[in-house]
Amino acid sequence: MLVVENSLSEALNKYFGYESFKGEQEAVIRSLLAGRNTFVIMPTGGGKSMCYQLPALMSKGTAIIISPLIALMKNQVDAIRGFNTDDGVAHFMNSSLSKLEITKVRQDIRDKKTKLLFVAPESLTKDENVKFLQEIEISFFAIDEAHCISEWGHDFRPEYRRLRPIIDQIGEFPIIALTATATEKVQADIQKNLGMSDAVVYKASFNRPNLYYEIRPKQNVLKEIIKFVKQHTGKSGVIYCLSRKKVEEVAQTLTVNGIKALPYHAGLDSTTRAKHQDMFLMEEVDVIVATIAFGMGIDKPDVRFVIHHDIPKSLEGYYQETGRAGRDGREGRCVTFYSFKDIEKLEKFMKGKPVAEQEIGKQLLLETVGYAETSICRRRVLLNYFGEKYDQDNCNSCDNCLHPKPLIEAQDELEMLLDAILAVKEKHQAEHLVNVLMGKADQQVKTYKHDKLEVYGEGSEQNERFWTALIRQALIAGLLDKDIDNYGLLRLSDDGHAYLKSPSSFKIALDTNFENTETDEDDEFSGAGGGGAADEQLFEMLKNLRKNVAKQINLPPFVIFQDPSLEEMATNYPISIEELKNITGVGSGKAMKYGKAFAELIKKYVEDNEIERPMDLVVKSVVNKSMLKVYIIQNIDRKIALNDMAEAKGITTAELITEIETIVASGTRIDITYYINEVIDEDRQDELFEYFRSAETDSAADALTELGEDDYSLEEVRLMRIRFMSEIGN
Questions:
Q1: What pLDDT is recorded for position 485?
Q2: What pTM did the predictor assign?
Q3: Chain centre to alpha carbon of residue 13
Q4: How far apart are CA 649 and CA 18, in angstroms?
């Protein structure tokens, strides 16, 4: 027995001022105080930290809390000190401390002042720290964010897998492992690695009824985010992005549009990160734009919205990040912008990693796609993923329940799918089955001779997205099982076998909203997103004006302004050169060169039709939105090869070309002839240049169709399009 106090409720009131426990907190605490290994799966906001804080304060010795992030440790220590008169009651020990500070921490522990010591897993592996911990009285070990142990978890940390042998080296103590998200697979992995298969497991419901879940197509995403945040002025929110670069860009854009926002990512120094976190907690800023590193265990109960600029890599990551909204049980809106292109980008990032890691990552991504594209209740899908049943037909708090998608009958196709899975002996993944059904004889299909099967090509009338959607929805309906241990092989469940014996109606939804979202960086030169809410009459007037201007100077119309830019003008009604500069794909150069006539036409149209301009939605762009633009221009001046620049910046050459296209589309003249001469011979250059001189659109896809895909590469077309636009248009 660890406990030195009698009444748990008295201790709760004494140390924290609460009258009663939340959910299963009391049972968890009793288990730990009785010296039993304990495993806690409790959603964000469920009160996990109390499960080790109270027992630590009640027990003899110091509890060692293993935590993955410095910011998280600081937040926890500050919170505990807030309930105590002596700051020595809680300390953290990590790389941010000086030798003098570490000496002070150790002295407080020796003096038995410290009840909780937070350490990073990396700190625990140091011999000097192991030796110190062997010398002191320890009550128990708590492993927070325990999902970091599992390769199947959304935030795998290799150091976590080395914890058990180090704890054994220090001594024999009860262990409590805690996480906000764990599928059955992750749960088993955690228990096995920590050697605590005997642990008492407490699993709270994953249902957060106060959260509203919504997936939106990724169109005009920055405008949509700014519009959303301005509709929730004064409320706290977190916006998650996958890259540091995107975090900086979004934070800057929010700031210039009058929103109090700060960035948070691992590229900032620890002092800046801590400062930004504190400013958010103290409500000096409303919005934090962050990579996933932000928010673990941050005790801010009134975060009212969580926006995902990019879809997360796994449903566990999504669940944990959205779980930071509405921890006080009140309003929490979770909006995610999704494009299938994001999934393709994430898959590209996985290349080069070990095969097993790639396969795991691919399966986690498939689950995320299934959730994003499903037509059924999002709450039901999420809870199903974590092994929890949700029987209500309508949660009234997700986009699918509030705005149901139309369904189509798929009974025949489902029977076809189940037959195909049995025909391949339940030993293949979804991708292979789709190829078999559609009659695509790739190398794997030929190797297994599945092109000889009766089901081969039976489903060719439907496209790949249909079959993929059907597989996902059959999984959710429980007709299929996915063998995660074997990289996602599909097999029939008992219900699936029963369905084949007695088939019945099976309806699915096909949502194509996500297929063509986001601008196609290979086919839209300007990088501008389509409007969707443009004033059609004004749009036609602007197109006619563009045609006339182009005729006068003998240029293709797209060189003046491209359609997405005109659509944006017809949506936001800019009436001055300054406002035109904020239109995507215009920029200062083109606004000055061609903008006057367009601004005058729009101004007259607005006055004649008494239009109230949506100025709150005119998003101001960030001037020199990133150092990358400056870097590109400077290095092109120095005639550095594009592939060398891309490698230096850790991006692909295609991504670098996209950045150059955006710069040129806004009116800046750039000369990449030196690079083009190295990679495209002169005759081909001339043919491409002449093509764009007479082309009706700037589409790279149209150019390839016209010139022949076998004769020219997409990169060649894009490079010559840049040269043409820069020389002729700018």
A1: 56
A2: 0.57
A3: 39
A4: 52
